[in-house]
Design goal:
single chain; 159 residues; 5 helices; 47% helix
Length: 159
């Protein structure tokens, strides 16, 4: 269970702070515990996610060391230019990666997007752009940088 004031990653909502854990009435008299999550990017946005049986992936943020490693992985993937080895992603596969919340998978498909953006179908691009956006937000938050800094770090690593 996550604690009040803890920053976490929601695979759909992004980086957020657990504002509180509260009980809400569901049905007539049944109460369920919910996380009240506040977006780190937009303080006006809140989400109510059930503590048990939620459909979105909630996880602790990556560490600064993991963030640095992920940035390096993206740069290496792009620089190895292994386009031919990568199979085309389907919309379902892209959605699965988004919903997994796994930062390593997010890094892999983000490098895939950066290499092949003009070659992908618009629905796949839309999902991969969401993943890249979420990953950039998490990397920026953890490394105390801006999203522009993160993009620049990736671009500077491209030969």
């Amino acid at each position: 269970m996550f604690e009040k004031k803890e920053y976490i990653m929601d695979s759909i909502f992004g980086v957020c702070m657990v504002e509180k854990v509260t009980k809400l009435v569901v049905g007539r008299e049944q109460q369920m515990e919910y996380y009240v999550l506040q977006s780190a990017a937009d303080k006006k946005k809140k989400a109510y996610i059930p503590v048990q049986n939620h459909e979105t992936v909630l996880r602790r943020l990556i560490t600064p060391e993991q963030a640095t490693s992920i940035l390096e992985k993206i740069k290496v993937e792009i620089n190895t230019n292994n386009k031919e080895e990568m199979e085309a992603l389907t919309v379902e596969e892209a959605r699965g990666v988004l919903e997994s919340g796994d930062p390593d998978s997010w890094a892999k498909v983000s490098s895939y997007l950066l290499q092949r953006e003009g070659e992908l179908s618009p629905p796949v691009v839309g999902i991969l752009e969401k993943i890249w956006e979420q990953l950039q937000n998490e990397l920026a938050f953890v490394l105390k940088k801006s999203r522009d800094d993160i993009r620049q770090m990736v671009e500077n690593g491209i030969k």
